[in-house]
Amino acid sequence: MGKRRKFSLGLLLFVFIGLLLFVPASWATTDQSKTLASTKPRENQEIIKVGLFPYVPRIEQFKDVITQSWSEIEPNVKLEFVDEEQWDGGYKRDPDGIDVFVFDGIFLEYFVKNNYLASLKSNEIDKDKDFLSYALEGSQFNDIYYGIPQLGCTNLLFYRQNDAAKEKLANATTLTSVYEVIGNNPSSEVPPPSGEGLLIDLSGGTTCACYYVDIAMDLTGQYTTNPDLPDPEHLSSEAIETLRQLVSMAGPTQAQYEGDSYERETWFGKNHGRANVGFTEGMSAMGQTRQDIEFKVMPLGNEHNINLFYVDLIGLNHDLESNPKRKSLALKLANLMSSREVMVKSIKAYKGEPPQYLMPVRLTVFNTLKETDPLYDKMYQLVSSSDPKAFRLGENSREWLQKAKRKIQQQIYEQAKLLEEGKI
């Protein structure tokens, strides 16, 4: 009897200690499960796939701002950003499976022709009167909207305020007048010495081909959204000669140098070169030197100058046409991405870094940014006085670029190669 009683008390004590150990552990497990469940996407949660334009100084800033702004209006719809391997802005990749994507407007006709873009009505674009006219026109094909403008850019000539010939550069309206100031750059140094040569990136085939089309249009003096894209075996000798003049000012070694994005702008900020050709966002890499420079649209013609501006457009995948609910969500996101509030936050100074100096296409974005940064006021004055035209390459853009870009590069550098070999 006594022994049985002792066993019972021991058993009770064992059970009591076990409860003390088990109950808190089970509570912790339950709390942890709740936490994990709250961070996992629900099985049926709506997901919108997004492809941003990758060639900006800080794409992560765009992602952070868009994600935060979207969560405030659609907290139950997740955004999934694809990487550059999946989406490159439209230069080589197609937007298969991407709901909302930002693409270079030079390919608008290509994407329409190949059924990648959903059409939009004008009343589906928020505050469309706020867009600069060239950008809004650049989002249309056959009077139908196929995208919402987000950013613009054009080839600019940057030069220093203390340049002895700054007045000549400021007043230059032809490529020849720029050449008369800068001249040939015989140096093969990369980067070039201070005050010598034109810093310009002509290392990429697509870049050279776009310069070719821009120059060829200046030669005709006629703007078109469907330019004549010649057989690569029969390129314009005048356009090629103009491109060679750019190479002469740069020096072939520097012109062909393949470095990091905005590396030439970093050099220019450190006093290398005489002048620089690039986009406005290059100023983000110039350091405080950006306060001591002037910029203007780079003249590429000698008789006519049609100021072609690139337009980055936000497109909706044509596959969304079969799902009105998802198309409505995608349209809401596209409008958010192009809104004044999101664009200002996406391109202004961020986490200790300077503004991205990307070119807005909304008047209200310009007005907001120029309140605190005089460079945005300069940028707006440039755009508003340039009579910009949206740069387009027509429906055969991709195919032509693939065939022509290497041919163009070969021809513009052929003369430099012969010079190096002493054959001319």
From TrEMBL:
It comes from the Bacteria. The keyword Transferase applies. InterPro entries: Thiaminase-1_dom, Thiaminase_BcmE. Gene3D superfamilies: Periplasmic binding protein-like II. Residues 154-301 form the Thiaminase-1 insert domain. Its EC number is 2.5.1.2. This is Thiamine pyridinylase. It comes from Gloeothece citriformis (strain PCC 7424).
